[in-house]
Amino acid sequence: MNQPNFPYYNTVDQIYHVEWTTDKLFRLELLRESIATLWPDGHPTRLIHVVGTGGKGSTCRFLEMGLSCVGKTGAFMSPHLFDYRERFSINGEFVSQEDVIWAWEERIRPHCVRLAMRGHDFGHTFHEVGILMALTLFDKHGVAWAAMEAGVGGRYDQTRALDVVATVLTNVGADHAHVLGAEQWQRVLDKAGAARRGVPFFTSDRTPGNLQIIQSVCAAEDAPLRVITEADVAELVSGLQRHHLAVEAEALLNASYQKWNATLARKVIEHLCPAIDEKTLLTAFTNAR
What we know:
Blueprint: H1 6-16, H2 18-38, E1 46-51, H3 56-67, E2 73-76, E3 88-90, E4 93-94, H4 97-116, H5 126-140, E5 145-149, E6 166-169, H6 177-180, H7 184-192, E7 201-203, H8 208-220, E8 225-227, H9 230-242, H10 258-272, H11 278-286
Parallel strand pairs: 1-5, 1-6, 2-5, 6-7, 7-8
Antiparallel strand pairs: 2-3, 3-4
């Protein structure tokens, strides 16, 4: 029996829902155009795209804290709980109110007005503005590395418009079925659709059916795939013990499931920065809150 061709399923899905698909792709192209306009020489921050059902925010935090060992780091996460500033973190701290005012009034609002003058459809959405705000703040503060959390799904989320150095998929559950699909394979196909040609793809999803789809999508995109295993998690736990690193009660690592997110972040960081010191990296992880 032939193996399912999931990239083909994606093509047929787009044809059956062509109006919805083209609207989503239009939003991606509009955001790419804005990024190219605001940063004609390319954005200076090396970005990591994080998608998945659960653990995105924690994985972003581990990436931010871990990469702070080699440079200034940032994270764009959503939603916020109390204050819009919570969406933008630099070296583990929220940006200031003054930063948000400056980024909006001096950079993003004028650009949005210019776009809107072309027609109603050219106005940026709330999510798109958040992405542009994050890029603006990272640029202003000289951020070298930043984790960018997706909103919903992967292949059509506006974060898919970003040029990234790695794509990360935590796991795929039953979230947003009304948008991503009622069937599990549809949701996996959507999130795995964040894969970009030639860009390394990391996942801690261990469900066999999910992995089959992820492998198919990554193969079609020629995206090198790294799947996190229980042995990888055991290696992290062993490293914490070997270096006598205490995990405080309020630390993210205190929860056993967070060790999977930390291990996922670790493998991404070690791929991007192979010379990083293990003890230094794990110490940074213990400081993640």
